[in-house]
Amino acid sequence: MDSHAVIDEPALRANVESVRRRIGSAAGRAGRAAGEIRLIAVTKGQASEVVRQAHAAGLRDFGENRMDEAHGKQAELSDLADIRWHMIGHIQSRKAAAAVGAFALVHSVDRPKIATLLDRWAGEQGIRQPVLLECNISGEASKDGWDARTGADRPMLLASLRSATHLARLDVHGLMTMAPWTPDEEELRRVFRGLRTLRDELASGGGSELPELSMGMTDDFEVAIEEGATMVRIGRALFGERPA
Q1: What is the pLDDT of residues 8-25, one digit of tens each?
Q2: Per the domain annotation, does 244 fall within a domain?
């Protein structure tokens, strides 16, 4: 085994426990149960053996940003039958077919074209693909997603999102967002609260039930949980800085 492919196992287990404690504390402050929040370990750039170590430490949900990297790890770790793989990165149109059937949940359905392509390829495979719809709440140009910033055309946004929830071969479970990199807690709360409000608007307007909110990363997941996150995507707090 390549010595660079593994990390210190006691440290990893300690990090997992630390993150779980922080999830529990944040949930408690919001009057929620820790079991309501799913921890997704972000393993972009990590070797397959690190994923195996994390699985041994009790993690089951793993998020990947790149399609090819994800498929390689899935092949190398096929003996771990209870792993749930999540696609959390931007999906190129030409790679949409490769996402269908390969992930327990695709978080990053960031525009109508990708929703339509995933629906088409799921139909070709005769399956239903669970997804989340990614929304840009912050308004940053660097962020992907449906434009849901303050001042955006709300009726048009809601109509577009509802169209995606009605595609025949997609199971839309909820919404996803990324907050800006900022120490301003109130700005973080505005973004996370904005996603929750958007989800509630969609549900109250006769759309599908959308129980999942994927929001919060290493630097802001506790705030996200306090604002309603049901999934947090954590990399650095578990594994340390990503390998070059």
Answers
A1: 999 999 999 999 999 999
A2: no
Is residue 84 domain-resident?
A: yes
Q: Is the pTM of this model over 0.90?
A: yes
pLDDT in tens, 202-224: 988 665 689 999 999 999 999 99
Q: Residue 23: CB partners within 8 Å, gap ≥ 6?
A: 34, 37, 39, 221, 222, 225, 232
R_g over Cα of the chain: 18
What gap in Å lies between CA 223 and CA 36, rounded to an integer? 15
Q: How many domains is the chain partitioned into structurally?
A: 1
Q: Which two tokens stand for residue 77?
A: 């770790």
Torsion angle of the four alpha carbons 3, 7, 10, 13, in this order, in degrees rounded to the nearest 10: -140
The one-letter amino acid at 2: D
C-alpha span between 126 and 35 (Å, rounded): 32
* Residue in this structure with the two tokens 């800085």, named with its chain if needed: 241
Residue 53 lies in a domain: yes
Backbone φ and ψ of 120, nearest 5° = -65, -50
How far is 75 from 178, CA to CA, in rounded Å? 29
The answer to whether the CB of 147 falls within 8 A of the CB of 112 is no
For residue 130, what are its two tokens? Answer: 């669970």
Is residue 243 one of the residues assigned to a domain? Answer: no
Burial of residue 49 (number of CB atoms within 10 Å: 0-12, 13-18, 19+): middle
- Residue 117 belongs to what domain range? 3-238
Q: Indicate the burial class of 126 (C-beta count within 10 angstroms; 0-12, 13-18, 19 or more).
A: exposed
Residue-level length of the chain: 244
- What CATH number is given to the structural domain containing 74? 3.20.20.10
